[in-house]
Every structure is written in structure tokens, then in C-alpha cells.
What does this fold into?
Amino acid sequence: MRRSGGSNPLQLIAVVAAAAHFALIGLCLAGYFRIKPRGSWEPVKFLAGGFIAVGYFAGIIIVFGPQYIPLLGRVFGIL
It folds into this structure.
């Protein structure tokens, strides 16, 4: 049942969560570029960490939210 005159509060939470994620990504990049003695493997480790985080997120959705698997597939262009 929808409330009249207002929006869904879950949409507000989603917007705040998305903004927080973008801020976190930006701050991770800023921290990465502050590393001065950067070795040749640092970019690989940075990207690997990003892929691991996305894989972990996908795993959580697959295990605990199977109803969202089609949405996950559309986001990543798999389904």
C-alpha cells in the first residue's frame, strides 16, 4: 500500500547508499594515488581488490537474495 503525498523511504536510502559508495570509491582512489613508493605490482593489486569486492557483492546476492539474480545479470550484461 502506497502512502499518499510521499515517496517510498527505501528510495531515499538507496540514493544515500549509492552516494556513499561513490564517495568510498573516490576516497580509495585518492588514497591509492597518495602512495609514494609505488611498486610495479600496486596497480594490479588495486584492480584485483576491486574485482574481489565486486565478486563478493555478487556472491552475497546469489546466496542471500536469489530473487535479484536476474537484475544482477542485467547490470553486468550476463543475462
